[in-house]
Amino acid sequence: RSIKVAKKPKRVLKKPKVVAKKPNVSKKQKPQVKKSLSRSATTETVPQCPPLGLESLKVKDTQLRASSFKRRGLGPHRGRLNIQSGIHDGDIYDGAWCAQIRDTKQWLEVDAQRPTRFTGVILQGRNSIWRSAWATSYWFSNRSPWSSFSHRSGNQDAETPVLALFNTSTVARYIRINPQTWYQNGTQGDICLRAEVLGCALPDPNNIYAWQTEPTESRDKLDFRHHNYKEMRKLMKSVNDACPDITRIYSIGKSYTGLKLYVMEISDNPGKHELGEPEFRYVAGMHGNEALGRELLLNLMQYMCQEYKRGDQRIVRLVKETRIHLLPSMNPDGYEMAFKKGSELAGWALGRYSYEGIDMNHNFADLNSVMWTAIELETDRSKLINHYFPIPEQYTSEEAFVASETRAVISWMQNIPFVLSANLHGGEVVVTYPYDMTRDWAPREHTPTADESFFRWLATAYASTNQVMSNPDRRPCHNKDFLRYNNIINGADWHNVPGSMNDFSYLHTNCFEVTVELSCDKFPHASELPIEWENNRESLLVYMEQVHRGIKGVVRDKDTEAGIADAIIKVDDIDHHIRSAADGDYWRLLNPGEYRVTATAEGYLPSSRTCQVMYDHYPTICDFRLTKMPKQRLKDILAKGGKLPKDLQLRLRQLRMRKLRVTTKAINQRRAAAAAKRAKRV
């Protein structure tokens, strides 16, 4: 499979020109090699061999060795493409392999554990906010016996990946990367690198290496490859054609460059909100270079279509009882940039932002600050709101620095009464839940919502059923060990993210949303997509099923049986309310237990009842019928020219008598007080 995904497998990739800066490189003598080996790197055909898996962690730490290393945090296990360092210089999570000795004899070795045809290497320098280090030229060698076979120019900076394709492939079990010149940063010219090795395992007819073979295929017949915008649209159309009765494609807006934000709806009645049926959404591709979520959602829509047609009862139940919306690419402009560069060559940041340079994960209205400021200033807590916070006016103006994609998603949220959502990202393996923003702008601090316990349940539902997250032996991706947290964490306890979609969704709408970090590798190679689908298939389905936990019902007018929109649903001891949809139906996500629930609406008397949530995968039905307040009911009847019913006449008579008694009592008290005052004077 190709490193750079394209329609034509014989596409040619030009190797980037790299010119070493003479004043800043080591003047050490290069080793002698056979004259038959070419020292130049011209235009090369893209190799068909995939990455061995240094970035994706398929290559284990024990398969990496080095001639020397400065310390544990700069050991050979850190020499992986795109690995990210911690913020503290000198900790155990640094951003590259760095040799202890500065000479041309230093090397990083990769053990493929079986005979492999090596076709190239992708190289980077050290990731660090404190130090700059990269190698500007390399020799490559293999153990057969050890001999150098290719020389290539290296990096010009620490972050841009450089593809070094070999003029001729070489077969070996081991390969060594041997830096020859490096950036001289004053006296701090360290030899550091991060790498990915491209290679194809040779056939193993006698099954000698069967013990170490990991599964690479999926049992599901899906389109496992990276899809650009046109291919994504074509695939969605094919799913719609295959299952027209349960699917619908619609657009919620356009990107900055005019690409449509397509959504696939899956429901037994597509295009219509059904009374009592919850709305669910998955959003992927907020950061365009985090491509796995995009492909998983394309796989998911194919899978659900196929399984529905086969009669899989689990899928049939989901389709009939849930209205599902899949947005595979929130940032199509960013994805196209990363896609054109190639899955291993896009680096850590290319395509992350919108075409305008906006990070959409920080681009939603900061309602957290609005809420916390109100809490600090308001002395009467009864006047505080805890849900449906309005968007500040300055955010909605045309001059506001808000991406067109963000505006489209906000409008989508406001038009559909979503209940549950997940935002699919990449670059880590963890599930985070709100709040994402710390209260006092601390770099990180646990900042829970009123629904902390249910959010932890949601995060656990995904993490515990994910094959990678649930593996107790997996190593950390970059610089934080989330196994210590059972692979779930409060977003603000990881790092401060003001303006996140998760927090906005919780504070502005009824929808609960978490972020799922799917893989260490933001843009996995196409050959890894089948196993990534296997890792996440069950998690994607289980998480969708959580939309049916808690209570649901319809708030109706007692007299007319019409649904009441915007009725407020309050749960005792949980300081976060939700509201009913246009038809009066509502959904309140809750853990199992007994709850006292109150429904209120403008012009109606409040109504309370006790609702018991069980451990079943079905919600408890808690309907409400509200009685209009007499004044409101009188206004409605008189406005229609109707006759007052006897119960309302009696109620109005009672209210008049109560008012008369109160008024008479007040008058008598004033008269008695005046008489006492006169008697005192006399």
TrEMBL record:
Organism: Stegastes partitus
This protein's UniProt keywords: Carboxypeptidase, Glycoprotein, Hydrolase, Metal-binding, Metalloprotease, Protease, Secreted, Signal, Zinc
InterPro entries: CarboxyPept-like_regulatory, CARBOXYPEPT_ZN_1, CARBOXYPEPT_ZN_2, FA58C, Galactose-bd-like_sf, Peptidase_M14, Peptidase_M14_domain
Ranges of residues in domain F5/8 type C: 47-200
Cofactor: Zn(2+)
Organism domain of life: Eukaryota
Pfam families according to UniProt: CarboxypepD_reg, F5_F8_type_C, Peptidase_M14
Record flagged with keyword Mitochondrion: no
Active site: E517
Cellular-component GO terms for this entry: extracellular space
UniProt feature, compositional bias: Basic residues: 1-37
Ranges for region Disordered: 1-46
Molecular function via GO: metallocarboxypeptidase activity; zinc ion binding
Protein name (Swiss-Prot/TrEMBL): Probable carboxypeptidase X1
Family per record: Belongs to the peptidase M14 family.
Subcellular location: Secreted
GO BP annotations listed: proteolysis
Domain (Peptidase M14): residue spans on this chain: 225-547
